[in-house]
Amino acid sequence: MRIVLAEDDRHLGEGLSMGLRELGHTVDWLVDGSATEQALLSENIDALILDLGLPTQDGLHVLKNLRSRGNNLPVLVLTARDTLDDRIQGLDLGADDYVVKPFDLLEVDARLRAICRRREGRAAPLIEYAGITMDPASRSLQKDGVEVILGANEFSILETLISHPGRIMSRQALEESLYGWDEGVESNAIEVYIHHLRKKLGKTLIKTVRGVGYMIPKQSQSD
């Protein structure tokens, strides 16, 4: 999952971004509202963790502007403001969920997965497709009931593709799902991961759309 974390507390931001990366997410950490607004112009973000007390522009304004553009990005508000009015205002402006500091890392991760499932129209925590069962919480996968071991980046690419069946994902979009803004990307990294996934899960699972990118087809009603 590609996450933007907007948190101006250096200690908290560093700890949260590190913890989420260890759980398999790609995290871009920002410390002010204006930079967050610019970052949210990207289309390849899966969720936003938003502190309300940001400098340069308050988190509530960031949220209001995001929703006014028609952007339905899942937003988890993370704040020390624990009054009822603040919670109501954040939710009324379009936040998907709310966590009050102090918090537990695993709870934040679980809430992120839940709001992303809702936006994708999935109620169940597992992702199922043509004999494949993925568990994003444990980052495990089975094919026809047999466990298949995937590397962290292989799992992330497959989760990105299989969560959006029928949608063509460019190599750049897949790279952005794996690497933060300051991380170097090997020129053929995506091709290598796709090759490994096909070797482990079958050559026909992931389709190459020449000159455009990769996709997993939508399942027919009979599948």
UniProtKB/TrEMBL annotation:
UniProt-recorded name of the protein: DNA-binding response regulator
Organism: Candidatus Thiodiazotropha endoloripes
UniProt-annotated location(s): Cytoplasm
Gene3D superfamilies for the chain: 3.40.50.2300, 6.10.250.690, Winged helix-like DNA-binding domain superfamily/Winged helix DNA-binding domain
Molecular function (Gene Ontology), one example: phosphorelay response regulator activity
Higher taxonomy: Bacteria, Pseudomonadati, Pseudomonadota, Gammaproteobacteria, Chromatiales
Response regulatory domain ranges (all copies): 2-116
GO CC terms, sorted: cytosol; protein-DNA complex
This protein's UniProt keywords: Cytoplasm, DNA-binding, Phosphoprotein, Transcription, Transcription regulation, Two-component regulatory system
Residues of the OmpR/PhoB-type domain: 124-218
4-aspartylphosphate: residues bearing it: D51
One record GO biological process: regulation of DNA-templated transcription
One Pfam family of this chain: Response_reg
Primary localization: cytoplasm
Database matches in InterPro entries: CheY-like_superfamily, OmpR/PhoB-type_DNA-bd, Sig_transdc_resp-reg_C-effctor, Sig_transdc_resp-reg_receiver, WalR-like, WH-like_DNA-bd_sf
DNA-binding region per Swiss-Prot/TrEMBL record: 124-218
Top-level taxon of origin: Bacteria
